[in-house]
Design goal:
CATH architecture: Orthogonal Bundle
Largest sheet: 2 strands, antiparallel
GO molecular function: DNA binding
CATH superfamily: lambda repressor-like DNA-binding domains
Organism: bioreactor metagenome
InterPro entries: Cro/C1-type_HTH, Lambda_DNA-bd_dom_sf
Order of helices and strands: EHHHHHE
Distance between the termini: 17 Å
Number of helices: 5
Shape: globular
Helix content: 40-55%
Radius of gyration: 12 Å
CATH class: Mainly Alpha
Structural class: mainly alpha
Protein name: HTH cro/C1-type domain-containing protein
Number of domains: 1
Keywords: DNA-binding
């Protein structure tokens, strides 16, 4: 899963720390999300999407791999 958090933070002029405070997580969590090292809980994904007034699908890009 990829995301557009870094791009959206820049568009909304938010630092990692400011976004972290808005969604009640540590700045390090935002760092890990931006580096695709961490997948957020559904609640965190929803909270981040709400900050940007977007849907979860607009912020988080799911790679659909149907190979088993």
């Amino acid at each position: 899963m990829n995301n557009r958090i870094k791009e959206l933070r820049a568009r909304f002029d938010l630092t990692q720390d400011e976004l972290a405070k808005k969604v009640n997580v540590r700045r390090e969590t935002i760092v890990f999300l931006e580096k695709n090292k961490y997948n957020p809980s559904l609640k965190l994904a929803y909270d981040i999407a709400r900050v940007f007034d977007m849907t979860i699908e607009e912020v988080f890009l799911f790679n659909e791999d149907h190979s088993d």
